[in-house]
C-alpha cells in the first residue's frame, strides 16, 4: 500500500469528519466543515491527510501559535492502523514545525484511548506529567 501525505482541500472535509466518527474520535465543538476549512486559511497551520489511491485514511492538524507547535486530531481509519500511517502523518507535521522554526511541540492525546496513548508512548514525544489541561467553550455570537 502506498501512502500519500498531502495538505487537505475542501473535498477532504466531509471524509475527515466521517473518518473521525469511524475511528471513534471524541466529537468536538469544532468538528464542522467551516472550522476545518478555516485551518487552510491560517498562516501557520495545516490540515494534513494520509490517503491511498482509493481513500482518505487519516488526518492530523499541525499548528504553530508563535510560542509552541501543537498537534491535534490525529486519527487513522481502523482498517489501516499499525501500518505506519500515524507515524507518517506525524513525520509530515514535524517537517512543517521545522519549517516554522518551532522549538517545542505539544500533542493533545485523549487518555481514554489506549491505542492513541500507546502510539505516543512509542514516539520521540515524551509524556509531561507536570501538565493538565483546562478548557472553556466560548459561545460565538455573530452580529450583523
Folded structure, characterized:
The chain has one domain (4-121): 3-Layer(aba) Sandwich (Aminopeptidase), CATH 3.40.630.30. Strand 4 (69-72), helix 3 and strand 5 (105-107) form a beta-alpha-beta unit. By secondary structure, the protein is an alpha+beta fold. The longest helix is centred in the middle third of the chain and has 15 residues, at 85-99. It contains four helices and five strands; from the N terminus they run βααβββαβα. It has a five-stranded mixed sheet, sandwiched between helices.
Number of strands: 5
What CATH calls the topology is Aminopeptidase
Highest-level CATH class: Alpha Beta
Approximate shape: globular
Considering the chains and any ligands shown, give keywords for the structure.
Aminopeptidase, five-stranded mixed beta sheet, alpha+beta, 144 residues, globular, 19% strand
Write the layout of secondary structure elements.
Layout: E1 4-7, H1 13-22, H2 33-39, E2 45-51, E3 56-64, E4 69-72, H3 85-99, E5 105-107, H4 114-121
Parallel strand pairs: 4-5
Antiparallel strand pairs: 1-2, 2-3, 3-4
Summarize this, please?
By secondary structure, the chain is of the alpha+beta class. It has helices at residues 13-22, 33-39, 85-99, 114-121, and strands spanning 4-7, 45-51, 56-64, 69-72, 105-107.
Amino acid at each position: 500500500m502506498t501512502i500519500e501525505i498531502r495538505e487537505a482541500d475542501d473535498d477532504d472535509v466531509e471524509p475527515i469528519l466521517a473518518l473521525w466518527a469511524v475511528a471513534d474520535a471524541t466529537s468536538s465543538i469544532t468538528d464542522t466543515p467551516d472550522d476545518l476549512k478555516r485551518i487552510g486559511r491560517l498562516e501557520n497551520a495545516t490540515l494534513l491527510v494520509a490517503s491511498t489511491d482509493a481513500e482518505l485514511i487519516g488526518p492530523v492538524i499541525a499548528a504553530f501559535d508563535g510560542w509552541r507547535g501543537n498537534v491535534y486530531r490525529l486519527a487513522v481509519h481502523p482498517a489501516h492502523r499499525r501500518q505506519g500511517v500515524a507515524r507518517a502523518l506525524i513525520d509530515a507535521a514535524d517537517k512543517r514545525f521545522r519549517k516554522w522554526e518551532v522549538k517545542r511541540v505539544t500533542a493533545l492525546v485523549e487518555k481514554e484511548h489506549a491505542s492513541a496513548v500507546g502510539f505516543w508512548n512509542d514516539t520521540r514525544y515524551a509524556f509531561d506529567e507536570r501538565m493538565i489541561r483546562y478548557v472553556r467553550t466560548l459561545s460565538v455570537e455573530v452580529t450583523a
